[in-house]
Amino acid sequence: MSDSLTLQPVAVIHTPYKEKFSVPRQPNLVQDGTGIIELLSPFNQAESVRGLEQFSHLWLIFQFDQIPQGKWHPTVRPPRLGGNQRVGVFASRATHRPNPIGLSKVALRQVECKNGKVLLHLGAVDLVDGTPILDIKPYLAYADSEPDAISGFAQSQPTPPLKVEFTPEAESAVKKHSKNRPHLQRFITEVIQQDPRPAYQQGKTTERIYGVSLYEFNVRWRIKAGCVDVAEVMSVSV
Question: Which positions fall inside the TsaA-like domain (predicted)?
Fold first, then answer.
């Protein structure tokens, strides 16, 4: 058996998440955070996706390309356990793994082949913008679905812990972009109410102002008594 394996990305994904800090921990937690996969040469051929439109969901195998190589530990602290309890790395979906490979199930909305490009329009995703896609496989309900599966410490979907409110200035800024981003306020709310802070900070009130990059915007917010105040939504150069 070979000690190494060389993989070539078949595609790249475009998402509104410009940094790791803002990415939801699972794709279905933020419904407005959709993505588009763009196949790379030489895989960007219509023949490569023939028949894919017959499937409603896909498995994406991707690279954690923003994680430092070689830095992993046999145990990790999952956010669902408050960042205080350790489990084995193979009993988690931690990003710091022996091999920086991730798996995500996404909804397929449209297959588009146009002007030499092959694009897969997706539903909600949990990947950073520009993440390399290593493989794409159709989701098979009869084989992949296990309604009675036991999911350990993550048996149920987490309840969003935070209430999100916009200052008048932030709400006004969002409305200015409503033509191009009609669901921007709802999207920002979905992202921040999941509390993207590290698990050890969650549940704590602080005067610190946080910033997160979504689409072409820098969103600044703070925590006050279990509620989020979105203070600014600023357009930035892209």
Answer: 7-148
